Amino acid sequence: MEIIGYKCFNKDMTNRYGKEIEIGKIYTANGNIKVGNDSHGYHFCKNMEDTFRYFDAMNDEVSVCLVKGTGIIDEYEDDYNGYYNIYASEHIEILKKLTREEIIIYALNLNEIRVCRFVQGFKLTNDEMELFKEKFSGSSNVLKYINYYQLRNIDAFKSL
Q1: Contact between 76 and 41 (Cβ < 8 Å)
Q2: How far apart are CA 116 and CA 21, in angstroms?
Q3: Among 22, 23, 73, 91, which is least packed, fewest CB within 10 Å?
Q4: What is the pTM assigned to this prediction?
């Protein structure tokens, strides 16, 4: 099995345990390949915006990579929250570190629901916010999410 997805790392391309990760390298996990903190496997998400649930890209600079998971792959679907798929794979290949421009272009081409998830987890510059406001000017939801999560306007979701 093979799944292409996204994984975040710290700014310096280390994982949350301090291990340095290299582009183009394949990493292998041993043991019970299963999603979760008490199991084994390299975790990643099919949708980039969902990776920001695991790394704080609102307050810290992160490295976002395109990855390929292979071998044994466990999938977890969060039906309760209904918005992300996470995988744990036996092998993960770090295909590419995305530039900020590539991240923004990716997000600008998402549907409204996924853009809302993106802007609540990834800190935008003022110029980037303007791009989203312009592209999604007809979406009151996207504009509310930008106002609340990016501009910290606590009244953004209050009814008029």
Answers
A1: no
A2: 29
A3: 22
A4: 0.91
